[in-house]
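Course assignment 3, question 2. Fill in each field.
Student: A.L.
Task: Predict the tertiary structure for the chain below.
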Amino acid sequence: MEAALISTSTNPFELAAGINYFFALLPDEQTRRAIAGVGERFRKSHRVDGVPVGIEDLHLTLCPMGRPERLRRPLEEALLAAAGEVRAQEFTVTLDAAMRFSAREGRFPFVLCADGLTTAVALELRKAIAAAQSRVGLQVSGVSSFLPHVAVLHGHAVDAVEESVAAIQWQVSEFVLIRSFFGQSRYEVVGRWPLAAAAAPEPSNLLAELASLPDLADLAELPAWSDVE
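Answer field:
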């Protein structure tokens, strides 16, 4: 595919032609291999003549860049500042279904979709990122319309399909801002922000629990159930 020309716009408040930004979750290496394997099995079993997404480019899109409104700082700086305000906890992503999406630019994306629990948690993170963007002058529309997924294949003749797959999971410990280049299938990670580790359960204090139990001698002095009226 011919590379699109990238504008070197001198206005830092505007999106340069050929460039876009979005927030995403990146699978770890082992998860990327598992996702790519499902895509390859699908391609062979359904005899799809398509273009697989490069294993290094697999990602789950979390939130798009908002529309600039009353932007008070350069665009990329605003995105970085917004992400720095987001506070959320680590969570587990579970991909357990495969389906074909509607055609985009003449191609049908084949994707792996997240389960309901992942969708609920990821939606809250998406809302937090959108709210943070709003505070710096970037308005995100359609925040609640969200089906988390990872695209693995783009084909020109992919039949309609929706089926369960063996669950693929990974622990999400950060989200990233990605700069993408139209027509090049190329992505650059601009920034990374860690998610807070889930609080570990407090260790039980066995000695304190034993000390709180009634004394056996006291129990012996209690009346038997048969003596209680």
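Instructor remarks: Residues 31 and 170 are 7 Å apart (CA to CA). The mean pLDDT is 83.
Grade: pending
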